[in-house]
Design goal:
Length: about 150
């Protein structure tokens, strides 16, 4: 169970996970030792699933972001798992969600340009016999890029 102090710790870590336990303790009104124990417990329990750095795709030459909805032809478990595996392996796919509604999956694809997106489409979507259809939407402006969860 996550209590109020855990929530304050999680909120502070989501803003900056590089601070010391002493700095964290000052922000959340606790001791450094308590913060360290709680953070370790949150990691052990799978509440904190990763510590990472957010990188601007444009800084790495990935100036085109495309949101792609994908409909599968058949929803057999093995075929769905095959698609999931393929998307996990696709370096262009930065996010992949299995969803309800008109589409089966929503992908976020980061590539250098339209030509690179065309290569992705031809090698990852057109070649998959279980992809019935897909729609792509090119991002014009990133309005919010914040993988934080309000705690």
């Amino acid at each position: 169970m996550v209590d109020d102090l855990d929530k304050r710790i999680l909120g502070a870590l989501q803003r900056n996970n590089r601070q010391s336990f002493a700095e964290l303790a000052e922000l959340v009104g606790s001791s450094a030792a308590s913060c360290m124990r709680r953070v370790n417990k949150l990691r052990a329990e799978g509440v904190i699933i990763a510590d990472l750095s957010l990188v601007d795709p444009k800084a790495l030459g990935k100036s085109l972001t495309v949101v792609v909805t994908v409909e599968l032809d058949r929803e057999r478990l093995d075929l769905v798992d095959d698609f999931k595996r393929a998307m996990r392996a696709a370096k262009e796919v930065t996010q992949c969600y299995m969803v309800t509604g008109d589409a089966d999956f929503v992908l976020v694809v980061a590539v250098e340009d339209v030509e690179a997106f065309d290569v992705f489409v031809k090698t990852k979507l057109y070649t998959n016999p279980n992809v019935r259809k897909f729609r792509s939407m090119i991002s014009l402006d990133r309005v919010k890029f914040e993988p934080r969860i309000t705690v």
